[in-house]
User: What shape does this take?
Amino acid sequence: MKSIIDLVYLVPLFPLIGFLINGLGRKNLSKSLSGIIGSGVILASFIVSVLIFNETTAEDFTAVTVNLFDFINVAGLNIPFAFQVDQLSTLFLLIITGVGFLIHVYSTSYMHEEESHHYARYFAYLNLFVFSMLLLVLGSNYLIMFIGWEGVGLCSYLLIGYWFKNTEYGNAARKAFVMNRIGDLGFLVGLFFIIQQFGSLTYTEVFSQAQSTDVGILTVITLLLFIGAAGKSAQIPLYTWLPDAMAGPTPVSALIHAATMVTAGIYMIARSNILYTLAPVSQTVVAVIGLATAILAATIAIKQNDIKKVLAYSTVSQLGYMFLGLGVGAYTGAVFHVMTHAFFKALLFLGAGSVIHAMQHEQDIRKMGGLAKKLPHTHWTFLVGCLAIAGIPPFSGFFSKDEILVNAYAHNPILYWIGLGGALMTAFYMFRLYAMTFRGTFRGSDEQAQQLHESQWSMVVPLIVLAVLAAVAGFIGIPELFAPGAHRLEHYLAPVFAASTELRAAHQLDHSTEYILLAVSLTLIAVAILYALNRFTKKPDIEDATGFGKTLANKWYVDEIYDTIISKPLNGLGYVFNRFVEKSGIDGLVNGVGKSVQWGSRQLRLLQSGLVGTYILWMVLGILIFFVITITILN
Amino acid sequence: MPINYYIILAVALFSIGVAGVLTRRNAIIIFMCVELMLNAVNLLLVAFSKMHYENVAAFNPSLQVGGEAQLFVFFIMVVAAAEVSVGLAIIVMMYRNIHSVDVNFLNRLKH
Amino acid sequence: MSITEILFWFLSALALGGALMMVTSKNPVYSVLWLIVVFFAISGHYILLNAQFLAIVNIIVYAGAIMVLFLFVIMLMNLNADNEPQKNKWLKLAGAVAGGSLMLVFIAAIRQTEALKIQQVNTGGDIGLIHSLGKTLFTDYLLPFEISSVLFLSAMVGAVVIGKKGD
Assistant: This one.
C-alpha cells in the first residue's frame, strides 16, 4: 500500500484546481458555488495534510523526497521538481491549510456585498495564494521555494489591490510588490552563490556540504538570503509596505499579512538553519535587525488609530521577535512563535473584520467604544487574542515568546531586556486597542449605533475555533522549566534542527535564573495591561497626538525619508532621461530615419514627370548601364 | 562579308532608331523609329542565319540549316503589321481627343 | 573589290543615310519617304544574302502596306512642318547622346569577339528560297502560322473597337 506521502502533490493541486475553476468560470458561477469551491479545496488539502502529519509522528520517521518530474537538467546542474516531506514542512502545511480554511469560510460572508464575478475573483486569488505558499514550504530545493516565493508576492499584490478602482489601494499594492522584489533580488543573488558554491540547489545536497565550506562565503550567502527574508517578512528597512497593505480586504490581511506569507522568511531561515549556525555574523545581523524592527514597530503601534494599522504594526513587531529567535539559535522557538502568532493574529484580524463589518466599514477606533455588549462573541474571542499576544499564561503566546526571550538572555542579556521592553509595549498597545474598541462608551454616530449587530455564524465560528487554538496551542511547547521532556514540539522538530543543535553551545540557563526572569516579565506585563485598560477605558485617546507622540503617529517619518532619499532622485533621473535621452536622442534618431526616408522619396518623386518621353529615356539609360556592367563583369 | 560588318550595320541602325524615339515629339515619327529598330533586328537575324549555314556547310554541304531564322523574321513582320494597325488606331484616337499628336500632352501619369 | 562588296557598302551607306534623314526631318511626310528608302536598302541587303523571299515580303508588306498606312494617317491629320512640335533642346541632346552611347556599348561588346572577324557569311545556298522556306514553315512551324491568323484577327478587332466614335 502506497503511503499517503506519495500523494503529497495533492495538497497544492487542490487549491490550484480551485483557482482555475473560480478564475476561468468567474462570470458563470454563483456566489455560493464559488465560496464552496474555494473553501472546499482548502479543506481537502487540510485533510491530506492531517493524514501526512499522522505519518510523520511515527517514531522512526525520516524526511521523504517525492520526485514529481525533471525540471531543469543542464550542464551538470540538476534541479528536479520535487517535494520534501519532513516535520518542518508538515507543520507549515497544517498551519497554512488549517488557518487558510477558516479564513476562507469567514470570507464567504465577509465579502458578500461584492458582485459575483468579483467574488469569484477573490476566491481564485486566495486559492492561487495558498497554492504558491504550499509550493514554497513543500519544495525540496531552493528553486521551488523561490517559485512559491514569487507566487505569494504576486498574489499579495493582486489581493491588496483587490478593489482596483481605488488608486490609493493600487499604489499600496504596487508598493508591496516593489519592496518584495527588492528583497527577491537579494534572494536570487544568494541562489546564484549557492549554485556556484555547492553545485546544486537541493536542500539535502547543500546542507551536507555546508560544514566543509568557507565561513566567508556562507556569510555572504546567508546575508543575501536574509535580504530576501527582510523584504518578504517586513523587517527593517523593507517593512513599510505592510501597514499600507491593510488596504486589502480584512481576511486577506489575516491570511497573508499575519499568518502565512510574512512567515515565509522565517520558514526559509529555519530550513537553512545549518547555514546560519555556521555563519555567526549573519546570525547576529538577523537578531539585531529583528529586535530593532520589533521595538520600532511597537513604538509606532502605540499611537495608531486605525484598528487594522495597529494590528499591522503589531505583526511587524512580532515578526521581529521571530527573527530575534532565529538569530539567537532558538529555531524551535521561532517556529513555535510562527504557529501561535498565526492563530492569535488571524484571530485578531478576523475579529477586527467583524468589528468593521458591524460599524459599516468604520475603522477608526476613536469612533468606537463599548462594543462589548453588542458584539459578545467578537468581544470574548478578541480578548483571548489580546491575552495571547501579550504573553499571559496559560495562553499560547506566553510559551512561544518566553522561549525566544529566554534563549535571547542566554545569548546576550541585553537582547533580553530590550526584548522585554518590546513585550511590555506590545501588551500596552494591544490593550489600548481593546479598551478603546470594546470598553467605555460608544463614541460613534447614532446611525452607526443603530446598525450594530453581531456577525453571522459563518464569521463567528472561525473566530471561536481560532480562539480555542490560541488558548491551548501553547501546551505543545511546555518548556523544560515546568516539566522535563514535555516540549512536544521541540521533540517533533528535532530532526530538522539536529545539525544546528549539535554545533551550538548548549544555552542552558539554570532554573533559578529562568524563574526570576519569568516572574519579572510577567509582573511587568500584568502592570502594563492593567494600566492600559484603566487609562484608555476612562479617557480614550481621541485628541490628535502632540510632541513625541506626533512622531510616533507619523511612523517616525520613515516613508517620507524613503521618498526623499530614493523616490525623488529616481524620478528626477527618469525625468532627465525622458527629456534628453529619450525625446531628443532616441526619438530624434528614430523619427529622423522616417523623416529622411520621406525626404528621399520626395526627391525621387520628381522623376515621375508624367511625360512618356522621359520614361523612355530612363529606360534606355538603364539598359545602357546594364550592358556596361554585364560586359565589364563577364570579362 | 565578315559577320562583323553586318553586326555593326544593324547596331548602327538600331541606335539611330533609339535616338529617334528619344528625340522626337511627334507620335507618328516615334512609331516609325520603332519600325526602323525592328528592321535592324531583322537584318541581323538574316545575316546570322547565313552565318550558321556557312558554318555547317563547310562540313556538310547538303544539309539545309538556318531557315528557321528567316522564318522568325517573317513572323516579326507579321507581328509588326498587326502592331502598326492597332498603334495607328490609338494615335488617331489620341488626335481626336486632344487634336495634336504631341507626346508631351500625355502627362496624366503625373497626377 | 568584288561587285558584292561594292553593293554592300553602297546599300549600307544608303540605309544609314536614309535613317539619319528620317530621324532629323521636320516634315513628317519626308520622314515617311526616307523610311521607304531605308526599307529598299535593307531589301537589297536581303537579296545580297540570297534571302529572296524575305526581300520581296519586306517590300510588299513594309514599304507597300505599312508605310502607306502611315501616310494615310499623316494626311488625315494634316500634319506638315509648320505645326510640328519641337522638343526641348536639352532633351534632344540627351536623346542623341543616349542613342550614341548605346551604339558605342554595342560596338565595344562586339570588339571582344575578335574571332568573328574571319567568320564569313555565305551568300549562296538554298535556304532563302521560297520553296525550302515554305517546306519548313508548313511542317515544323504550322502552329505559329495558324496562330498568327488569330493574331491578325484580334488586331483587326482591336483597331476597329479603338477607332469607333464612342457611345
